[in-house]
Amino acid sequence: MQRKSAFSRRLPDLVTEELVAVLSKKGTSFEFKQLFDIIYERLKKRNAASGGEEMLRLRAYEKLQHLVSRGMVKKTGKKYKGLVSLANALTPSEPFITKSVS
Looking at the DSSP assignment, which residues form a beta bridge with residue 79? Predict the structure, then answer.
C-alpha cells in the first residue's frame, strides 16, 4: 500500500495570481514585456517582488507558458490573451492528498 506524504498540487502563488488578474481583463492582449511590467509593479505594491527582477521575469514567463499549455491563455504571435477558462487557474484541479496517520 503506497502512501503519499505530500500535496499532489500546490496552491497558486502570487505570480500566478497577478497573471490571472491582469489577463482576465476582457478584450486586452499583452506582449510579455508589457505584461511583466504591470505584474512587477503590482507585486512591488504587495511587497512580494523578492529575488530580483530578472529571476521574477523568468518565473513569470514560465508560469505564463504553463497557462498557455493548459489552454487558459491564448498566444497569438507575441501577444497573450486570457481565455474564459483562466478563472480555473486559481482553484486546484485535484483534491489535496494529505499524509495518513496509521
Answer: 31, 76
C-alpha cell at 15: 505570480
Crossing angle (nearest 10°) for helices 53-69 and 32-45: 120
pTM metric for this prediction? 0.75
What are the pLDDT digits (tens) for 6-52?
Answer: 555 555 688 999 999 999 988 889 999 999 999 999 998 988 877 78
Interacting residues of 36 by C-beta distance below 8 A, sequence separation 6+: 57, 60, 61
Q: Tell me which DSSP letter residue 48 carries.
A: -
Q: Which domains does the chain have, with CATH numbers?
A: 14-84 (1.10.10.10)
